[in-house]
Design a protein that fits this description.
The protein has helices at about 25, 60-75, 75-80, 105-115, 145-150, 215-220; strands spanning about 15-20, 35-40, 45, 50, 90-95, 100-105, 120-130, 130-135, 160-165, 170, 180, 185-190, 195-200, 240-245, 250-260, 260-265, 275-280, 280-285, 290-295, 300, 310-315, 315-325. The chain is α+β, with helices and mostly antiparallel strands. It folds into two domains: about 15-220, Jelly Rolls; about 240-325, Jelly Rolls (Sandwich), CATH 2.60.120. Helix 2 (about 60-75) packs across helix 3 (about 75-80).
Length: about 325
C-alpha cells in the first residue's frame, strides 16, 4: 500500500522571555520579536499543541493527526506506549541573557508530583558569542554541603561552567543542575514535559520589582549530586554519515553532515523521525520523488510509515536526526 502521509512541517510556537533575544528572527528566520526566547518546533504539550502548516493536513493539530494515523504516524510501539500524546518536545532557544539555574524531576518523581513525564533533555549549540553553559557541579558534594552553599549565597562557586562552541552537544539527564548562559543559541530535544524547578535566578526582578518564584524544596529532592569529569557529549561528525551522539531511552539523536545526497533506509526504526536543520538547506525526497525542503532553523517530522528517503543538500548542511528506539 502506498503511504498517504508525507513529511510534516509545523507552525513554530514562539515564546517571549525576560532572557530572550533577536536571534530566532535574525539567525533562524522565525517571525519572532527581539525578546523571543523559545521557538517550540514540535510540541504535544497541553495548551501548546503544534499545528501542521504544509500539505493537505495543514491546520490539523498534532494530537488530531496522532488520533487519525496512530502507528502510521508515530510508530506502532510508540503509539502503544504513549497513545496520542507526542513524546518529544523540540525547541530552539535564544539566550540573550543567562537563564535561571534549574533542575528537572525524573519520570518517577514527575508522575508522583505532577502526573506527567519527567524531563531529560539535550542541547546542540547552533551559535555561541563566547557563551557558556552550566552543567552539573564542579566537585563532589552531598546534600548537606550543597545546602551550605545555597543558604550561604555561594551557589555560584560549586556550579560547573563550560565554554561552548557551535556543534557541541550536552546531554542533560533529569536531576542534573543546569543553565544556558548569555550569548548561546541552541536546539533542545526533550521529553514532553513542562516541569522545571528553578533553583536560582541571579537575583533578577521583573518590571514590578518582583523576583520569579523559586522551587527550593522541590528541587532539593530532584537534584543528582553526582560529580562527572566530563559533561560534554563526545562525538565525531563524519561527512555524509549518520553519527549517533545521544542514545537514551527517551530519544536517540544523531548528527548528519552532508555535502552530497545520502539515502536513508528507516525500515529498522519503528518510530517517527524528526530532522532539524542546523546549517544549510536539505531537500527530503520521498514517495514517488516528491521533495520537501528544510533550511537552517527549520524542523520536519517524518511519519513512521515513510521508510525510504533521500537527503539532498543544496549546500554544505548539518541535520539532527531524532527518534525513539
Amino acid at each position: 500500500m502506498e503511504p498517504t502521509l508525507y513529511p510534516l512541517k509545523f507552525k513554530p510556537i514562539l515564546k517571549d522571555k525576560i532572557w530572550g533575544g533577536p536571534k530566532l528572527r535574525d539567525v533562524l528566520g522565525k517571525q519572532a520579536s527581539d525578546k523571543a526566547g523559545e521557538s517550540w518546533e514540535i510540541s504535544g504539550v497541553e495548551g501548546d499543541i503544534s499545528v501542521a502548516e504544509n500539505g493537505f493536513l495543514a491546520g490539523n493539530r498534532l494530537q488530531e493527526l496522532a488520533e487519525i494515523y496512530m502507528g502510521d504516524l508515530l510508530g506502532e510501539g510508540i503509539y502503544e506506549r504513549f497513545g496520542v500524546e507526542f513524546p518529544i518536545l523540540i525547541k530552539f532557544i535564544d539566550a540573550a541573557d543567562v537563564l535561571s539555574v534549574q533542575v528537572h524531576p525524573d519520570d518517577v518523581m514527575a508522575r508522583e508530583r505532577h502526573k506527567t513525564y519527567g524531563k531529560t533533555e539535550m542541547w546542540y549549540i547552533v551559535e555561541s558569542d563566547k557563551g557558556q553553559l552550566i552543567a552539573g557541579f564542579n566537585r563532589k558534594l552531598d546534600q548537606e554541603q550543597y545546602l551550605q552553599h545555597f543558604n550561604g549565597g555561594t551557589l555560584k562557586e560549586i556550579l560547573n561552567y563550560e565554554a561552548v562552541a557551535p556543534g557541541d552537544i550536552y546531554f542533560m539527564p533529569a536531576g542534573r543542575v543546569h543553565a544556558i548562559g548569555a550569548g548561546v543559541l541552541l536546539a533542545e530535544i526533550q521529553q514532553t514535559s513542562d516541569v522545571t524547578y528553578r533553583i536560582y535566578d541571579w537575583d533578577r526582578t521583573d518590571e514590578q520589582g518582583k523576583s520569579r518564584e523559586l522551587h527550593t524544596d522541590l528541587a532539593l529532592e530532584a537534584i543528582d549530586f553526582s560529580f562527572h569529569t566530563q559533561y560534554k557529549t563526545p562525538y565525531t561528525a563524519l561527512q555524509n554519515s549518520t553519527v549517533s551522539a545521544v542514545d537514551s531511552p527517551f530519544f536517540t539523536t544523531s548528527v548528519i553532515q552532508l555535502d552530497q545526497p545520502v539515502e536513508k533506509d528507516l525500515n529498522m526504526i519503528d518510530s517517527f523521525v524528526i530532522y532539524m536543520c542546523m546549517e544549510g538547506a536539505v531537500g527530503i525526497a520521498y514517495g514517488k520523488g516528491e521533495v520537501e525542503v528544510i533550511k537552517k532553523g527549520e524542523t520536519i517530522l517524518i511519519p513512521a510509515e515513510l521508510k525510504n528517503l533521500a537527503l539532498i543538500p543544496t549546500e554544505a548542511s548539518t541535520l539532527l536526526e531524532v527518534y525513539i528506539k
